[in-house]
Input
Amino acid sequence: MTYKVAVITRTKDRALLLERAARSVAAQTMQDYCWVVVNDGGDPAPVERICAASRIDPARIKIVHNDTSRGMEAASNIGIRSVDSQFIAIHDDDDAWDPAFLAKTVAFLENTRGKNPAGVITYSSYVSELIREDEVIRLSERPYQNSVTGVDLDAILDRNLFPPISFLFRREIYNSIGGFDETLPVLGDWLFNMEFLVHADIGVIREILAHYHHRDQPDATPAAYRNTVVDQASLHETYTAIVRNRFLRNNLNQSAVSLRMALQAQIPQTAGATQRRSEAAPPTVAALSRGSGDLAWTIAAVNAALADRSLRAIFKHRNLTPLAPNAPWSLVLPLLRKLKVAVPPPHDFDENAYLRNNPDVAEAVGAGRLRTGFTHYVMHGQHEGRARTSGEHWPAESFGEHHGSDPAKSRFQPVFDSPIMLRSAHAAEGFQRVLHVAHHEWHGIRQATAYSPGHKLLISAHETLTEDDKRSIAQGIGRMGIDRICFQGYSENADGLLLYLRAVLGPSVKFYMISHVTTAQFDHQFEMTVIARLLNRLKFGVIDGIASVKPGFGSAIDGIWKRTILNYAPNIPMPQGRRSSRVEVYAPLDVGWRKNLFTNIIAASLARNVDMVKTANFPNGLENIHDLHKLRLVGYLRGQDLLDEMARSSVTLIATLAECQPMTQLESFAAGTPALTGPLEVEEFTGDPLISLCTTHHLDNPALLAKDIERIVDVLQSDPSAMTQMITEHLASRHRAATQSYAEFLEL
Output
């Protein structure tokens, strides 16, 4: 019998995880699959029991018992060859799928039949967990390697771009490759992915449909349940070079591979660049800039240029449309030349070093023939073999991350009062001895912290603080005379730091925590665990108070301050005269139900008085059911680029389905642009004319939401100065109320 998909699960004495895998497979909305469970030398009884108890049709289950362990890659081959199918997916016993994974990946490949892609990956999440007394305890979840917009051979030679759980592929390519290399104890999936790209392309579904689980605290995990990428890290490091060399030796006769090697030989490698990464470690931003990172950055610059064209340029290039997020260089570079776009350097490209190393480029930039060295690099330098000056230009204010040849320093370092955290902050009497602690990785909360009065400390949410880190932080607090410490958001690191500082600093320093979550986020176990732990810390006097930026949160959960902490907008001069002559609305939203991207885009395109709809993310698939001729993709922006885009826009759209006090709205107000949100119910602004104008109750109805967008545009066009005055008065009122809320909560 031929199945649509063969789902292969490798397992050995991990019943607790296999039960979860069974639930994941059983929950798939597409049912035309065979679940092949390869018991690689483990006890057969639990495997038989779990499979029999699963909600999967027994006719669709095949169990293979190996008398002795054959290894991961052999187990994969045994399972794949035991059944016939059109498609194959490796679902390890410790990972999980969204229920729509098979339906969406199979549909993607069936819709591209006859075209090149023979495999497809989805975006995934990294789930941190531990196992204690036969219970899986979920610690945290974050996006994993989700900046990939296209899977190219050059990038995957440097590092594996995706975990096995996110990959579905055609059996015919597996047969052409000859299966997984059974001589490899680890990294067999990486070698298979390289070989796959020699035969066919891999598409990308930019939606998190796979969950890559890690027991990343090996000391707290029974041996049988540990991940190889964590427990055998040294083995991964050893086999990284072996796998890459094996692939190159097997394929040097391939012209694409030979060309890549010839170019690579001309590029001098820094010590830091030679620290290759396997799938064991999520890549740094610098690593992501090789291949897909530079391409995605350039696509965003081109699409921004298309959105900003003058009327004359629109007529001249009237047939041009925004580039798709996964567009290849072969489409991007001709458009770059045609539009004469100056691509700004990304933050991990050392512009000055590139110009120093290439005097001819520096001369062209000085003469005005080129706008930036990075533009030269993407158009010419990378093809001429010139070195990309990356990984060496990370200012202290760039999230506090340090890169270089020393791997011990390639991590998020704790940083006090970095310029980027102070330059848009408010000042208020009494806050000189307040320290806010935020996390490098959590952008929205980090910005809320940056705009508040007081000192700032950035720590990592995921990379464990060392004892030296904690000691240095305590010493810094002592030098600054801090007597109030306010944690903005909470993590395992924050909890460990709290306990350390409470023990070291004693009762003379008070500790507080501000939550930035809504109860809608309680579908993530991590968020409820955090609240429960904080209430425990409050009960035993470790922390002096907990508050929330979500109105009414304290009424829902006993122990949390009954009032609401009000967020500040950035303290910057409001730009004047930057708004486009056309009516442009901007939706800087992520794809996901809470952010409501699709409804915002459809509503804006329906609005009668809107000329252009700008978005950070292309709404894949929507073009098949809705006219998107107004849409322009400008890419994901931050910092000054984000504020500039808001200043050029007539309205910022953030009508989201679950929100507290969105920083995006406050940043838009600071840029002089009204921002539409759902009801936030902040008591202090009941009756405020700006908030009344910028509130919609039609979050899931694009036709009615379009009317609310039209209403704001009509007010703006009828009297722009009145809109500016309304925003100015609201910001002044907000900042007074925010200062009062913080002062009361922190007992200043």
The first helix runs from residue 15 to 26.
